[in-house]
Inverse folding.
């Protein structure tokens, strides 16, 4: 299980000497570290102005504000978030 946060592509910077991308399916591009294989990002043609980043790719969660839960209907059955944030299906 993993968590993502979404940002605007225009505001995002993802770089590094090991950065690689893979087209995993039509319209989907995944960023990863070509040196260790760690997943970094997810992009889809259905949301061309946005990019999803893995929370685990951050050095710090300072400044990350959770505003809601996307893909809520796809969660594992035992996951329960004890908050009042919007849960988008």
């Amino acid at each position: 299980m993993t968590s993502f946060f979404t940002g605007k592509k225009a505001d995002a910077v993802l770089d590094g000497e090991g950065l690689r991308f893979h087209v995993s399916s039509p319209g989907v591009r995944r960023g990863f570290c070509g040196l260790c294989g760690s997943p970094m990002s997810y992009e889809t043609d259905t949301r061309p102005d946005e990019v999803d980043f893995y929370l685990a790719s951050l050095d710090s969660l300072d400044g990350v504000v959770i505003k809601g839960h996307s893909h809520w209907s796809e969660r594992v059955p035992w996951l329960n978030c004890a908050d009042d944030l919007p849960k988008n299906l």
The beta strands are 4-8, 19-25, 28-33, 39-44, 50-54. The chain has a mean pLDDT of 89.
